[in-house]
Amino acid sequence: MSESVSKIEKMIEKAEKEINATRKKRVRLLEENEAEMQSAKRRKNESIDLKNYLLAWGAEDKKVTAEWSSS
Fold first, then answer.
1. Can you tell me the distance from the alpha carbon of 48 to that of 42, in angstroms, rounded to the nearest whole number?
2. Which residues in 29-53 are b (16+ Cβ under 10 Å) and which e?
3. From CA 49, how far away is CA 47, in angstroms rounded?
4. Whole-angstrom Cα distance, residue 45 to residue 37?
5. What is the DSSP letter of 37?
6. Which pTM value belongs to this model?
7. What is the pLDDT of residue 70?
8. What's the rounded Cα separation, in Å, for the pair 68 and 58?
9. Residues 48, 54, 58, 60: what is their CA dihedral angle, to the nearest 10 degrees?
10. pLDDT tens, position by position, for the chain (71 residues)?
11. pLDDT of amino acid 12
């Protein structure tokens, strides 16, 4: 009987290690997802900034063209 209890305790210990490993994996995946999300947000904001910069130059180009046309 004591051998059975010992085997069960080892099974419980093994299962606990698997649970802990799964928790660590979940945390790592969440951290990786957050890093990917931040990278995507940064690229989006950089694209918005570039678009606004180009639009500002486009508005400037229209103004210069209009000034040249009226001269």
1. 10
2. eeeeeeeeeeeeeeeeeeeeeeeee
3. 5
4. 12
5. H
6. 0.59
7. 66
8. 15
9. 100
10. 779 999 999 999 999 999 999 999 999 999 999 999 999 999 999 999 998 888 888 766 666 566 666 65
11. 98
Distance CA 64, CA 57 (A): 10
User: 59: left (phi > 0), else alpha (psi -120 to 50), else beta?
Assistant: alpha
Tokens of 56: 């500002």
Helix (H, G, I), strand (E, B) or coil at 1: coil
CA 46 to chain CA mean position, Å: 15
